[in-house]
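I have been asked to look over a protein record a colleague put together. Thanks in advance; the entry in question is below.
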Amino acid sequence: MKTKYGFNMLWMYAGNYGKIPEEANERELDFIAEEGFNFIRIPTDYHFWTKDFDYTHPDEKVLAYFDRYVEACNSRGLHACLNIHRAPGYCINWPEREKHNLWRDEEAQEGFIYLWKMFAERYRGISSDLLSFDLVNEPANIPPSHPCTREDHAKVIRKTVEAIRSVDPDREIVIDGFNGGGSALPELADLGKQGVVHSGRGYEPFQVTHYKAEWVRGGADWAAPSYPGEVAPGQFRDRAWIRNYYQPWREVEAQGVKVHIGEFGCYNKLPNDLALRWFEDVLSVFREFGWGYSLWNFHGTFGIVEHGRPGTAYEEYKGFKVDRALLELLKIPFAK
């Protein structure tokens, strides 16, 4: 498997039925391809194409956006990874908006498997070199609305992989780690022999990457972290700590699993000099392990274009206002 480096693109992210998704931003894709990246993860929200929780009658007009996304990426030599970020019965963000629980309710599971079989049939002629399926974003146990054990999760994932394989035996499939993507999945390591990639996250230490993030409970009260240094009272973090954090993933990898970091990044409230020190360390760990990655996101509060972190020296580059220092760090693993 060619190592994949790129970005998350939020064209069909956080929606509702009747809301129009964005078209692929071809100008941004041109920039990404020209800079040597080869991977685009596309988190999507099923609420764009589903009305009244009727999971098995998607709106074909919305599904046509997927066709255009894949083509826009593939025509530039970019691998497209389709991800259902909000799935029938589950999303790590505001799960209470769901009618069912994907991990416990048969109706949601049937709808989820229906969607992935549908995509497998729709894109059966496209090589896995160009297209992969990331089944569900950041599974987790979220009581009381969406309780889930690791056994519940593994059962749904195995059934879904089997359903996709019944249609397209060679499709590359990606599964996110448990506990919001951060915990490795040794119980599903055997799927690595079937070409299933395990997708981790790069958001640790959380006090650094999510400093003053409005959606993090209590985050507004966090003391300003140092890095490398004390990120919270009594908690020292540096490159060695980050490297050790990924040891469980290394152990799963040793069983024949391919590992990719599907999301990572740093929110825009942190001073940029501190953020760049963190990026340098976490990227050097991924480079040491030979893991690819995709930044969340491209143009936005976690991205490389106008992210808004204090103290950033932007450069006008190829028509974008770019954090050039961060861009160059991201390119080191594949720079000539």
Summary: The CA atoms of residues 216 and 326 lie 25 Å apart. The mean pLDDT is 96.
